[in-house]
Amino acid sequence: MQKKYNGKLLSCILCMVLIVAMALFTTGCNDGAADGGNGSSSAEAGNTGSRADGGTSAEPEQLGEGSTAFLFTVVDREGVETQFEIHTDRETVGEALLELDLIDGDESEYGLFVKTVNGITADYDKDGVYWAFYVNGEYAATGVDATKVTEGESYAFKVE
Predict the structure, then answer these.
(1) Mean pLDDT, rounded, of the chain
(2) pLDDT in tens, 97-136
(3) C-alpha distances in angstroms, 27 versus 4, 16, 22?
(4) 3-state DSSP percent of the chain in helix, strand and coil, to 5
């Protein structure tokens, strides 16, 4: 009878050890995922104003000087959002973002074809993805260089 009891006790202890080991392993994996798995924080990776879980922080980074302010969001290929509060006196969103070196691209007969946003390049010819421009959450009807800055509106570029 004693041998049967010792076997059950040993099995119970082994089960508890495995559960604790799994919990520690899971916790360790979550910590690595929170910083992109490379040990750097989102701020160190150049994503000021964003969280690695795809959410945004409460305070967007403020850039520029001017009397008109608007919210600008960048959503990268992994879905990580970076938010900026842009202050400008420029007429178009494109002019404001170019002035702050937040966007870059190629001029064409249709206007500026944006290839780089916040230092992230999306090249359709190479990767099959591009930067889509949004105004107040809706796909923009005009290009970034033809969209007039409007106080309080939000603008975004998302990799698609």
Answers:
(1) 80
(2) 999 999 999 999 999 999 999 999 998 989 899 999 999 9
(3) 35, 17, 9
(4) 30, 30, 40
- Each domain of the chain, given as residue ranges in start order, spans 1-34, 61-159
Overall CATH class of domain 61-159: mainly beta
In SS3 terms, 101-159 reads as: CCEEEEEECCEEEEEEECCEECCHHHHCCCEEEEECCEECCCCCCCCECCCCCEEEEEE
Give the integer Cα–Cα distance in Å for 34 and 36.
6
Distances (CA, A) of 1 to 5, 7, 12, 13, 64: 6, 10, 17, 19, 79
**Max intra-chain CA distance, the chain:** 89
pLDDT 10s digits, 9-30? 777 676 677 676 666 666 555 4
Task: State the Cα angle at 129 between 125 and 130, rounded to 5°.
Answer: 95
Number of neighbouring beta carbons within 10 Å of residue 94: 23
Contact 84, 61 (CB under 8 A): yes
